[in-house]
Design goal:
single chain; about 675 residues; alpha/beta; Chitobiase, domain 2; TIM Barrel; Alpha-d-glucuronidase, C-terminal Domain; 3 domains; eight-stranded parallel barrel; 21 helices; about 10% strand; binds 4-O-methyl-beta-D-glucopyranuronic acid; Glyco_hydro_67_C; xylan degradation; carbohydrate metabolism
């Protein structure tokens, strides 16, 4: 039958090695769960399904302690767990952390999965199952884990007509037409998948928002989804269209300081909470790309965010106010705009507002330096926004494992409080003592059978969740987990394919935007090369604005001789990045306009290095394609062929990028393609 990837990393196929099965069976002889709640039921069902699949025998519930039993619950709902006196271990784990302990209960060997809350137990259950799926030792477990970031949220850019902005995996999985009465199994599988990686929130609707989602007709459907997700610890959020009071409330204005507008939002929030008592809050895109916002009324972002925050504060709701803004006037450098607008507002937001900042200052490019707002707003919790969907990364035809991209930003040092002031420490709140913390990923999920279009897109959903829970995890560890669960534990498969994943992002950077080049994709759809794009309504919607190639050289000067966007970073960064000799080469043309004959570290000229990178990138995709051929024996035919065909496409696209960019830039450089690199065909 079809093996289309629907089961994601939760496949639970029989472990082939009988000895290993035996070992796990001895440690899962029964399930003792004294409490009872929808969340614990979800944990039980998952365990039952997984154990019977992996071990080929049912997991029996037991009421007594027998050797090898699994004991699940919290000290509150399980007398057995209470008797173990784990308080000192549990207290530091907070409301979502979990503890997995190999211990003895009544002199019988047992594995205890416990937490301070049922959802913690569920997270622990998924972790335990992962140990089996990845075939780890489970004899002497003492695992405690708690999320480092509180709000770990998917952002769906899903429209009410089921199209998905920047979605490449079919249509939206929210079937508004059949909601609220029809609960698609997919909603539950979606919630299971998210819970398995600790994602605890989902914004159902596009940031380019439709006010209709806030009407009763839709709110009853939102309630149905929230009810389905609740057992899995997944909270629902919505986008709020700033002009909703006019569009669905018949008011004349949406001015955030207008008393009628404030009352309208208060009432609207109360209505939302009447359907969804644990509603998470609002995500808002305002005064950006034509969206309405407080600036339409001469107010600022804080005025807008605070008005919404006040409407939901007493219910515990939060406002995630996006910093992805750019003017209707074309700036000298779009990279500066968010900082210019938001930095002066530091300290003026309500306590339940987070400002949500994209990882880099332009827009989800294959590579960007970290956004200068990180570290610059000590009094305002900043939330990270990563893009999981591959808008600028070859969309769903390219295999690009994004953990290295996310890690690069999280590990970047802002130096705002001296060395070691990493972006991760800004986001997890430890640097500036933020009370609220959050991280968002723009979802790559659609109704394709495999959820993400490209099977390897699942790894990006997976790694986003894992890094949201713990930004210190390595890309390699996450890839290893995901591959083992998704494909096989065979090292002959794991080694080459893990390597392929880990290299894939750098490869893409090479064939698309090496050395700090950016935003030279096709106009508007952002697919394929388009370095020649010019003459559009706005200069910053063209490619020539970003690469600035001339007969002399190439690159965007963001130093004091140019736009001076560099001044938005801390002095240590300014110093390092401001000098082309010390600027990390991967950001060279992001910050500097350099002559074609400028000598780079390899000893090549800048022109020679650009050519080298494009050729190398395209050649590496050829190697990826060959590597995939070598692992055919380990993968079912359907998934093997799926990836194989996509790698063929990716190789064509990489060559297309190489040839288009090299030939286009050559019209400026006037130099030959260096010997040794083949001529474009
Ligand atoms: O990346 C750009 C996209 C837009 C998107 C916008 C944003 C939702 O091209 O499609 O709109 O960013 O993040 O608001």
């Amino acid at each position: 039958f079809a093996d289309d990837g629907y089961r994601l990393w939760q496949r639970y196929d029989l472990i082939k090695d009988a000895q290993k099965r035996q070992y796990y069976q001895e440690n899962t002889t029964g399930l003792l769960m004294e409490g009872n709640s929808p969340t614990l039921t979800a944990a039980r069902q998952e365990l039952e399904m997984a154990i019977s699949g992996l071990l080929g025998k049912p997991l029996r519930s037991s009421t007594a302690i027998a050797s090898g039993v699994l004991v699940l619950g919290t000290p509150q709902n399980s007398p057995v767990i209470k008797s173990l006196n784990l308080a000192s271990k549990l207290v530091p784990l907070g409301s979502e952390g979990f503890l997995i302990l190999s211990t003895t209960v009544n002199n019988k060997k047992a594995t205890v999965i416990t937490a301070n809350s049922d959802v913690g137990v569920l997270y622990g259950t998924f972790h335990f199952l992962k140990l089996l799926q990845t075939q780890q030792d489970i004899n002497n477990l003492a695992i405690s884990s708690a999320p480092k970031i509180k709000n770990r949220i998917l952002n769906h850019w899903d429209n009410l007509d089921r199209t998905v902005e920047r979605g490449y995996a079919g249509f939206s999985i929210w079937d508004w037409h059949r909601l609220p009465d029809y609960i698609d199994q997919r909603y539950l599988d979606y919630a299971r998948a998210n819970a398995s990686i600790g994602i605890n929130g989902t914004v159902l609707t596009n940031v380019n928002a439709n006010a209709l989602i806030l009407t009763k007709d839709y709110l009853i459907k939102v309630k149905a989804l929230a009810d389905a997700f609740r057992p899995y610890g997944l909270k629902v959020y919505l986008t709020a269209r700033f002009s909703a009071p006019i569009e669905i409330g018949k008011l004349k204005t949406a001015d955030p300081l207008d008393p009628e507008v404030k009352t309208w939002w208060k009432n609207k929030a109360a209505e939302v909470y009447s359907y969804v008592p644990d509603f998470g809050g609002f995500l808002v895109k305002a005064n950006s790309e034509g969206q309405p916002g407080p600036q339409n009324y001469g107010r600022n972002h804080a005025d807008g965010a605070n008005m919404l925050a006040d409407a939901i504060a007493d219910k515990g709701g939060i406002v995630m106010w996006r910093a992805f803004v750019y003017d209707n006037k074309v700036p000298d450098d779009r990279a500066k705009q968010a900082f210019t607008e938001f930095k002066p507002l530091d300290g003026s937001f309500r306590k339940n507002v987070l400002v949500q900042v994209k990882n880099g200052p332009i827009d989800f490019q294959p590579r960007e330096p970290f956004h200068p707002l990180f570290g610059a707003m000590p009094k305002t919790p900043l939330m990270m926004e990563f893009q999981i969907t591959q808008e600028y990364l070859g969309q769903a035809t390219n295999l690009v494992y994004q953990a290295p991209l996310y890690k690069e930003t999280l590990d970047a040092d802002t130096y705002v409080k001296g060395a070691g002031s990493t972006v991760a420490k800004v986001i997890d709140g430890s640097l500036h003592h933020y009370q609220l913390t959050g991280i968002a990923g723009v979802s790559n999920i659609g109704n394709d059978r495999n959820w993400t279009g490209h099977l390897f897109g699942q790894a990006n959903w997976y790694c986003f969740g894992r890094l949201a829970w713990d930004p210190t995890l390595s890309s390699e560890k996450i890839a290893d987990e995901w591959l083992r669960m998704t494909f096989t534990n065979e090292t002959a498969f794991l080694n080459p394919i893990k390597n392929l994943m880990l290299q894939s992002r750098e490869t893409l950077v090479n064939y698309m935007t090496p050395l700090g080049l950016h935003h030279i994709m096709g106009y508007s759809h952002h697919y394929g090369p388009g370095p020649w794009i010019k003459d559009k309504q706005r200069a910053d919607w063209t490619s020539v604005y970003y690469h600035k190639a001339t007969a002399e050289g190439i690159g965007f000067d963001r130093t004091p001789t140019g736009s001076n966007a560099l001044a938005q970073y801390s002095p240590a960064i300014q110093q390092k990045f401001g000098n082309p000799q010390t600027c990390p080469e991967e950001f060279l043309l992001w910050f500097h306009h350099l002559k074609w004959d400028y000598k780079v570290k390899s000893g090549r000229t800048l022109w020679g290095e650009i050519c080298q990178r494009y050729y190398q990138g395209a050649a590496e995709v050829g190697k990826m394609r060959q590597t995939w051929q070598t692992i055919q024996a380990f993968v079912d035919a359907e998934r093997f062929n799926h990836v194989k065909m996509l790698l063929n496409i990716q190789e064509k696209e990489a060559r297309w990028w190489r040839d288009a960019c090299v030939l286009y830039f050559q019209t400026f450089s006037g130099r030959p393609i260096p010997a040794g690199l083949e001529k474009p065909t």
